[in-house]
Each structure stands twice: as structure tokens, then as C-alpha cells.
Design a protein that fits this description.
Structural class of chain A: alpha/beta
Oligomer: homodimer
Distance between the termini of chain A: 40 Å
Number of helices of chain A: 8
Helix content of chain A: 25-40%
Radius of gyration of chain A: 19 Å
CATH superfamily of the largest domain in chain A: Dihydroxyacetone kinase, domain 1
CATH topology of the largest domain in chain A: Rossmann fold
Largest interface: A-B, 59 and 59 residues
Shape of chain A: globular
Order of helices and strands of chain A: HEEEEEHEHEHHEEEHEHEEHEE
Strand order of the largest sheet of chain A: 1-2-5-3-6-7
Chain lengths: 328, 328
């Protein structure tokens, strides 16, 4: 295992300490590293809280700040945060207007956020499940929540900042999730520090189509294809799942998994954009970068969110977080 | 070689096409992919132009836009751009106030930017050489220009936007370069697409201390060390080279080389910050991310820039580029 670490037991806390020190203008760490929260809360605003296993950075801590999340609860690497983390976060950031949990669809996450939601008052939840690769998966009943979660957090975060009430935010989050589809491919496996070896074996000439963000198996193992062939297949899976809805204005988001440099991500974006536009999608917003990662896995995912006037404007609204920033 | 590509001959142009399409609000591609330039020029402002071999993305194209570069000339991967690229860029972005070239210290880059500067009128140059690892290197007489180049481009870019004249910008650039030191370490080698195999061999338990951004050898090959031990050695090299000047306010920039995820970069930032602050440095600005890369190389560099009131304010000034954005 080749990583910048001191000890597998302190990877997470040391990384969080560095993250909080580097972005002290935006956020603060909760006691015992239970959560990351916005430094400046906005009284009367519904609080948005997300979280999940670590190893997907900058998701979710990198999206804490003005116009996006109020708090994020980091579990150990690829391990759900515990309900007491979410309860501590609620206590720290709920200013009286209630909380919305944004949860990726994994059994552990769903169970632990559910427990916290039952113990706290005034909490609603949005569960993301944008991954079209497989119906059920390791750790998941139903579809996995992957990179599209960023899009839900950004759009709902902007609406919360503008004063939208809790039930409307929940409806908006569900609507954005339903307008979002993703699929990923892996060229190499990431390595969980505590495991010390790659999560899965993969040959020099192989790739995994439909991989999950924990290295879960996807649709199949195949020979390494060209960027255009990969884009054709991934975009066809996404567009096919959308059916007639894959027409008109959309956000195209090409996401790196941690070990793939931006040169390749922009090349994939170029291929994917061409495929989608041939099918009647108009790419009106774009995001390219490593935002929802799987440790040091080489690979990428493609996410398409169909936009309308409201969601376009919310995407464009000012945001000031460690990993996404514009308009301020 | 495991990369998202269609053909080694079109990697660069396809990636640039994707980049320009994703950021069409900020920039446009010149004819024949000779340069990337700001979409909206600012008449009367000195034009800042940089460039160099590709493979270091987002450097330099990702820094084209308001408050930073007016144009960037991308050479082939790890190959200097040609003088006609710089001349075409000058013609496209010089609005009459002259041009400043910002050039990393590599023999090919220096020669080709020099030729272009002689053929154009009203051009001055800043050559960056922030890498303390070795005095001379493959492709370099004197020290290499590495991640600190971003800091020079940001600070000089802000001053140009505020109307500073060409000779003063050159003096400022030289001053920021002289206040900046970097050193990098590699855990793996990157792979040049046209070569098809890693640039250098490195064992499972080995790392390269002082590596260059093209995979050039550094000070020595060593066994893989802990993050703290790496930070101690790199920071000592930087602080030792600064001598008495490594006291007081500074920007700490931990830069990923392309294959290292942000979780590890923040952990390294945490280690490096502790080391520098013990030595009397006060970290008042921070940047953590993969900004000056070496294709898919796993590794990172640490850059320290000693700041004063003027350079701090210029660092904070609004910037709107594909890869750095704040204040607007």
C-alpha cells in the first residue's frame, strides 16, 4: 500500500484535522470528529445534513458551507457514521426550522440516519439512488447513491439558503434525485488503508463497467475500451433509463474516482457530451473533477441531471464550500 | 497503460476540446489548439501569458480567466510549446499595454518563450524556479519551476487586473518567485500516453524524494516513509533554503500530482503545517488540491510562499478560472 499516512488508525482524524485547519474560514470540526459544520449558521434556515463513510472526499465535508450543507458526518473509511454523530450534528446546526438529511442509498447509512431521524424532532430525509448500473449491490437494496448526490446537495442547499420550508426541500430533493442518473467505470481498485491491499483484483487490460464507489462489482468485467466506446455505453445506460425524459437542458457531470487526472476527465467529458447531444440532450451546465471519489481508484463516473428553470437557477446560486465555490 | 483515451495522437486535442466546451463561459480555444485565451479581454490591462508541456493540468489552461492568465499555450505532453504558439497568443490577447510571459525554468520552455519574446514587441518575462530539490536536472539548468508557478500566476494576475504596469508586474513576479520554495515526492510514476509505460521504475516499498513534475529524479530513492517523516524532510529542505526568511505569515500549498486523492493531501497538509509552525512560520493562507500535476503520478509537493500585506491582498483578490475561483 502506497499512501501518505502515519497509521491506519489515525488516517481519518488526521485528514479531518488538516481539512478543518485549511478551511477554518468556512467550517469547524465537532467534538471527537463527529461532524464538520458551517462556521456561520443562518438562523431560521432549514439545516441540511449529510454524511456517510469516508474515502469519497471531498464528498461530503467539502460541500459544507454557504449555499450547500450545514453539517456532514464522516464515518470511518467506507463505514456508515453512527446515529450519535447525526444527533450531535442536528444539535449543533438546527436553528429551529428543522433538518433535512441527505443520505446515499446504502443499508448501513439508511439504517443509521433513520435511527437518528426518529430520535430527533423535525427531520425529513432524501435518499439518493442515482446509479443505474445495477438494481441491488453489496451493501445496497435498490440502486446505489453515487455522484448525483452532489447535485442534490447543491440544488437543495441553494433552495434552503433562499428560505424554502422543510417539506418543500424534501420534495425538491426527491425531484432532483429522480432527474439524475449516473454510472461509473473503474480501471484500477482503490485501497482501504485498514485493509492494506486493493479492494478487488483487476488485470492490466481490464476494466469494470458499472463499478460502485466502494469498488462494488458493476455490470461486468471487460477488456479496456476506448474513451468513446466507454462513453457510448455509459451514456446509453443513462439515457435508456431516462427514456423519453433524456431530451432538453441538462447538467453533465464527469466525476473522477481519485486516481484519474483531469486531462483524462476532460477527454471523457468531450466524448460523453458528444454522445448525449446526438440524442437530444442540450448540455447547459458542466462539472468536471474528482468530487465523489473512491480513495485512489482510477476511473470515472458520468452523471446527467435533467434541468428546468428552477433547478438551473438553484445550481447557479452562490456557493462557498471547500470543494465547490462560485458567485461569492 | 490504463487511461481514458481514444488514440495517443489525439489525447491533447480531445482533452482541450472538452475543457473549452466545459468552460465556454470563461475561455475560448485558439486556432489549431495553439492557445487557450480568456473570452472577455480587459482593454488596457497588461496581458499575462503562460504555457508549457501538457500533462500538468489544470496548470496552465485552468488558470486562464479573470484575475489570472489571459492566455496559456499547451505543448504536447511534457514538450515545450513552440514560439508560434506564444506569438499567436500575444496577437490574440495583447490590448496595447504589453505582455508578461510566466515561464517555468526548463530549457525548452525558456528557449521558445525567449524566441517569441524577441519576435514580439513589449514583452517581459518572469521565469519560475521554486523547486529546492536539485540545482540542475534533466531538461533544466538551475532549479526547476514547479507548483509555486501557480502562486506567481495568481498574485501577478491580480496585480495586472488592478492596472499595474508591465515593469512593475515583472518585478512583482520575480519577488513572489523569490519568496516561494517547493519540493515534491513521488510514490508511483506517471505514464506518458505516447510512451505507453511508466516514466520510471519504482518498487512497491519505495518513494522518490525531490521528484520533478516530469518524473525527473530528485535527491534520492528511499524506502516509503510515514507522512510525518516525509513532511519533516520536505519542510526542512524548504525552510533551510529560505534561511532566516522562513518566519512569519505564509501561504502553505499542498499539491497533488494527479494520482493521489484529497484525503491524503489534507493529511500531508496537517503534517506539513505542524512542522512549519514549530519553526516560526504562521500559515495564514492555504491551498490543498491537485493543481500542478504529472499525469497520473501518485505523490505530492509542498510549497511555501512567504507573504506580506501586498501579496496577501493580491492572493485574496477575486479570481474566476476553471480551476481557481473565489470572490466572484
Amino acid at each position: 500500500m502506497k499512501k501518505f499516512i502515519n497509521s491506519v488508525d489515525t488516517v481519518l482524524t488526521e485528514s479531518l484535522d488538516g481539512f478543518a485547519a485549511a478551511h477554518a474560514d468556512i467550517l469547524v470540526l465537532g467534538d471527537e470528529h463527529k461532524f464538520i459544520r458551517r462556521r456561520a449558521l443562518k438562523p431560521g434556515k432549514v439545516a441540511l445534513i449529510s454524511g456517510g463513510g469516508s474515502g469519497h472526499e471531498p464528498l461530503h465535508g467539502g460541500f459544507v458551507g454557504h449555499g450547500m450543507l450545514d453539517a456532514a458526518c464522516p464515518g470511518q473509511v467506507f463505514t456508515s457514521p453512527t446515529p450519535d454523530q447525526m444527533l450531535a450534528a442536528v444539535e449543533a446546526v438546527d436553528t429551529g426550522a428543522g433538518c433535512l438529511f441527505i443520505v446515499k442509498n446504502y443499508e448501513g447509512d439508511v439504517m443509521n440516519f433513520d435511527m437518528a431521524a426518529e430520535m430527533a424532532d423535525g427531520v425529513l430525509q432524501v435518499v439518493t439512488n442515482d446509479d443505474v448500473a445495477v438494481e441491488n449491490s453489496s451493501y445496497t437494496t435498490g440502486r446505489r447513491g453515487v455522484a448525483g448526490t452532489l447535485v442534490v446537495e447543491k440544488i437543495v442547499g441553494a433552495a434552503a439558503d433562499q428560505g424554502m420550508a422543510l417539506p418543500d426541500l424534501k420534495a425538491l430533493g426527491d425531484r432532483v434525485n429522480a432527474a439524475t442518473r449516473s454510472m461509473g467505470v473503474a480501471l484500477t481498485s482503490g485501497t482501504v488503508p485498514a485493509a492494506g491491499k486493493p479492494t478487488f483484483e483487476i488485470g492490466d487490460g481490464e476494466m469494470e463497467f458499472g463499478v460502485g464507489i466502494h469498488g462494488e462489482p458493476g455490470r461486468r468485467r471487460d477488456k479496456l475500451k476506448s474513451a468513446d466506446a466507454i462513453a457510448e455505453e455509459v451514456c446509453a445506460a443513462i439515457a435508456g433509463d431516462f427514456g423519453d425524459r433524456a431530451k432538453g437542458p441538462a447538467l453533465l457531470f464527469v466525476n473522477g474516482f481519485g486516481g484519474t487526472p483531469s486531462m483524462e476527465l476532460y477527454l471523457m467529458y468531450n466524448s460523453a457530451r458528444r454522445v448525449f447531444e446526438k440524442q437530444g440532450v442540450t448540455v447547459v451546465r458542466s462539472l468536471v473533477g474528482s468530487y465523489v471519489t473512491s480513495l485512489d481508484m482510477a476511473g470515472c463516473s458520468i452523471t446527467l441531471t435533467m434541468l428546468d428553470d428552477e433547478t438551473s437557477a438553484l445550481w447557479d446560486a452562490p456557493v462557498h464550500t471547500a470543494a465547490l465555490r462560485w458567485g461569492m
